[in-house]
Amino acid sequence: MKIYYKYLFMVSLIVSCISCKKYLDVTPDNVGTIDYAFRNRNEAENYLFTCYSQLQRYTLPQYNVGFVTSSEIIFPIDLNDNSGIDATGFNLIRGTQSSQNPGINNWDGNNGGQATFKAIRQCNTMLENIDKPVDLSAAEKKRWIAEVKFLKAYYHFYLFRLYGSIPIVDKNLPINASAEEVKIKRAPVDSVVNYMVRLLDEAAPDLPPVIQNQAKELGRITKPIALAVKAQILATAASPLFNGNPDYVSIKNKDGQLLFSNTYDASKWDKASAACLDAINVAEINGIKLHKFNPPANIPSNLTDSLKELLTIQTAITEKWDVNTELIWALNGNFGYQPHCGPRLTSKSAANITFPGTFAVPISEQELFYTDKGVPINEDKSWDYLNRYDIRTGDAANRFYIGKGYETVKAHFNREPRFYADIAFDGGIWYGNGNFAPEGAYYVQAKGNTSLAGPKDNIRINVTGYWPKKLVNYLTVHDDGYTIEDYHMPLVRLADLYLLYAETLNEQGKPYASIVTYLDKVRQRAGLPGVVEAWTNYSKNPTKYATQDGLRQIIHQERRIELAFEGQAGWDLRRWKELQQVLSKPLQGWNVYETTATNYYRPRTLLTPVFNVRDYMWPIAADDLISNNNLVQNLNW
After folding, report:
1. Which pLDDT belongs to residue 215?
2. C-beta of residue 23 within 8 angstroms of C-beta of residue 43
3. What SS3 state is found at 163?
4. What is the value of pTM for the model shown?
5. What is the distance between the alpha carbons of residues 15 and 18, in angstroms, rounded to a whole number?
6. Which stretches of the chain score pLDDT less than 70?
7. Which of 29, 77, 253, 355 is buried most, with the most CB atoms less than 10 Å from its CB?
8. Which residues lie across from 424 on neighbouring strands?
């Protein structure tokens, strides 16, 4: 499996239009590397793609902090290496993080992290030498400079979300720099934010609004991407983790410089809101709109409306980028982890070791999704929350969601379309896997080790009984072998911007009527009534949306549902300072080894997370503090 993923990563670089020739491999003897790298346009373009190359690692979910620490996925602790997944990142919520040897160390580039400062240095080298290629046109030069400035900003942003205050590396130090010059200090949070925003403001005007030559350039940075990332940066800076957070008042440079402001600044939400609206407007002007499923020619035309609805939700993630109208930015590297995200559905696949299905969704995550009335399951007046774990049998009325005649729990009935599109569960219908008959679709059978999808050995096991179905393309087929229908994992899509803009408006204290407009765009696509209609008619708290705090709760839950499993929830929960609350509860799954419904549907605790205030920020490795005595450590590390 390791070899397979290594090969897949190499292929992704080729697909991303990167020339197979790398300048470091072809430099003749006695020729300066930098001079050779920028001797002409083609070699300089190769170096440009080197600046892009570290983005590709973000396609690996086990190294994405927003994915592994979000409470959305449990990975079995004893499967490290056996299934091709490094469990270092998944184990962080088990309390394994250490300042002696940090996991997912993006500062130094080890333990699953990448050397992000190296990526920044490569960007600086590109900018320092961009004038050397004599055959580079002025127009291309402007565009390349803009792309590299964006990449510099994004690499700083990735570090910023992990460490908060970081050194700003605007220029490379000369090779003869003194020891003291090398020992750079951390810059205050506000300075880092201002620096990233300045780079993006400089870059955006010279970036193309759309990619015209998609065959060769899809994945390169556009103006909508730059503006969307600017909105993310400013919303992060305005959020409670960084805006007036008293927890970090003691973190200062050794000269006494305060690194985290403990004074709340409401104007930061004003900047974030303006940036969101700007990003939305530019995206929409350039043809970006919420995705809608259009059946390909090989799919039956007699799909039910409910099935079209589910496939619209699923394919908003897995549709190819060149035809997915919603994607603002996705990574060129294909998401190679579909075998970890889906259940086995046929007798042949049950005997196949190549589909482990080990990404397990805890019960708490599935309970986050709304009822079919569009409100939380514990608020819906008509939904039997107290008896949700009682056994119920699939019937004709629910045949497009649950196997007819199959025993499951009441919690799986009368849920919103995103629940059925995003999560696979025991008894849940799975449209696809080569079976496109709406009335004869597969359904998941997961009770006990004799069932198709149940645990087979110490490698092929899903410990909760839930799978992140959203991350499997419905065209992917798994039987005696498997055929993967690849897709690009989104980093930003329009629904994300709509919800982010709604959040910024609410934090500004705007009237709810102007806010729910953007929430309702996303909810309507998901087949739900608008916020006001849903809460007024179906919630036990009918006026929740009319208060800033109530609407904040609605917005946060809406983001966690809409963006589930996309590597976003972990970042959101951090910036909201809600991750400690979420991880204060044990993560549970069903009793997956049991074969009867009565015994199977008994929640069991699989993991009791360890998360404290200090875990909101990553530790700087202790060795770095020794080698650079101008650095100071984050809180309580």
Report:
1. 87
2. yes
3. helix
4. 0.93
5. 7
6. 1-32, 79-83
7. 355
8. 467
* Alpha-carbon span 324 to 315, nearest angstrom: 8
Give the model confidence (pLDDT) of 570-625 as tens digits. Answer: 999 999 999 999 999 999 999 999 999 999 999 999 999 999 999 999 999 999 99
Q: Under DSSP, is residue 226 helix (H, G, I), strand (E, B) or coil?
A: helix
**Is 526 within 8 Å of 417 (Cβ atoms)?**
yes
Q: Which two tokens stand for residue 168?
A: 């700003």
Half-sphere CA count of 490, side-chain side, radius 13 A:
30
Contact between 67 and 145 under an 8 Å Cβ cutoff? The reply is no
Indicate if the alpha-carbon torsion angle 614, 618, 622, 625 is positive or negative.
Answer: negative
* 218 backbone φψ class: left, alpha, beta (φ>0; ψ -120 to 50): beta
What local confidence, expressed as pLDDT, does residue 56 receive? 81
Helix (H), strand (E) at residue 442: strand 442-443
Question: Helix 138-163 vs helix 223-238: angle between axes, to the nearest 10 degrees?
Answer: 20
**Euclidean distance between CA atoms 321 and 419, whole angstroms:** 24
Helix H segments across 319-409? Answer: 347-350, 363-366
Number of other CB atoms surrounding residue 227 within 10 Å: 27
Instruction: Give the Å distances, CA to CA, from 39 to 20, 35, 51, 132, 495.
Output: 18, 6, 17, 7, 43
- H or E stretch covering 587: strand 587-589
Q: How far, in whole angstroms, is CA 523 from its chain's centroid?
A: 20
Nearest partner of 576 among 241, 87, 162, judged by Cα: 241
Q: What percent of the chain clears pLDDT 90, i.e. is strictly above it?
A: 82
| Secondary structure (DSSP) of 254-307 | TT--BSS--S--THHHHHHHHHHHHHHHHHHHTT---------TTS-S---HHH
* β-bridge partners, 607: 587
Alpha carbon distance 195, 179 (integer Å): 25
CB atoms within 10 A of CB 405: 12
Q: Count other Cβ atoms within 10 Å, centred on residue 289.
A: 11
Cα–Cα separations (whole angstroms), residue 203 to 44, 124, 270, 280, 598: 19, 14, 22, 18, 59
In which residue are the tokens 């099935």 written? 307
Give the Å distances, CA to CA, from 440 to 153, 322, 432, 479: 50, 31, 10, 17
For residue 476, CA distances in Å to 320, 322, 431, 433 come to 13, 19, 11, 6
Structure token digits, residue 587? 């993560």
In the three-class reduction of DSSP (H, G, I as helix; E, B as strand; rest coil), residue 325 is classed as coil
Measured from the Cβ of residue 599, the count of other Cβ atoms closer than 10 Å reads 13
- The angle formed by the CA atoms of residues 256, 261 and 263, to the nearest 5 degrees, is 130
